């Protein structure tokens, strides 16, 4: 059953500036995510999309940015390049499934997340 939808957008120029700070990268991205970004030619676009995905997950869960650690939301990629979400820590088990789509243009990144939860038996 669909239990939430989240969407977020970000100007890529903002992410380019934020990525200059190591503390920001460590606070927002897991080690696996940072390794992925190091291999990307368009790292700022990828990082902005992944950040939007994390924000969209929070919105789908009806949480704010201060309600969870962003590193508890991990955006990984299949061999095909398709993104998927892994929840850790306090967020683990909060969703039966999370469906994610990330896109970006030259200027803006966006992501949408659909949250599924198990239907409760009545």
Please tag this protein with its features.
single chain; 122 residues; alpha+beta; Ribosomal Protein L22, Chain A; 5 strands; Ppantetheine-prot_Trfase_dom; fatty acid biosynthesis
Walk me through this protein's architecture.
Helix content is 33%, strand content 30%. The chain has helices at 12-18, 22-28, 31-38, 43-60, and strands spanning 2-11, 73-77, 83-87, 97-104, 108-116. The strands form 2 sheets. Strands 1-5-4 form a 3-stranded antiparallel beta sheet. A two-stranded antiparallel sheet has the order 2-3. Strand 2 and strand 3 (83-87) form a beta hairpin. The longest helix is centred in the middle third of the chain and has 18 residues, at 43-60.
Brief overview, please?
This protein is of the alpha+beta class and 122 residues long. It has helices at residues 12-18, 22-28, 31-38, 43-60; strands at residues 2-11, 73-77, 83-87, 97-104, 108-116.
Measured distance between first and last alpha carbons: 14 Å
Strand order of the largest sheet: 1-5-4
Q: Any idea what the radius of gyration is?
A: 14 Å
Which structural class best describes the helix and strand composition?
alpha+beta
Number of strands: 5
Query: CATH fold name, please?
Result: Ribosomal Protein L22, Chain A
List the helices and strands and how they pair.
Layout: E1 2-11, H1 12-18, H2 22-28, H3 31-38, H4 43-60, E2 73-77, E3 83-87, E4 97-104, E5 108-116
Antiparallel strand pairs: 1-5, 2-3, 4-5
Helix pairs in contact: 1-4
């Amino acid at each position: 059953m669909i239990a939430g939808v989240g969407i977020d957008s970000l100007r890529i120029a903002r992410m380019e500036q934020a990525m200059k700070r190591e503390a920001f990268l460590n606070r927002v991205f897991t080690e696996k995510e940072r390794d992925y970004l190091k291999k990307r030619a368009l790292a700022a676009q990828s990082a902005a999309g992944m950040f939007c995905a994390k924000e969209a997950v929070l919105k789908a869960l009806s949480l704010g940015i201060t309600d969870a650690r962003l590193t508890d939301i991990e955006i990984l990629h299949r061999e095909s390049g398709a993104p998927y979400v892994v929840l850790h820590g306090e967020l683990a088990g909060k969703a039966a499934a999370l469906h994610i789509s990330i896109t970006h243009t030259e200027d803006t990144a966006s992501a949408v997340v659909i949250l599924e939860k198990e239907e409760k038996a009545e």
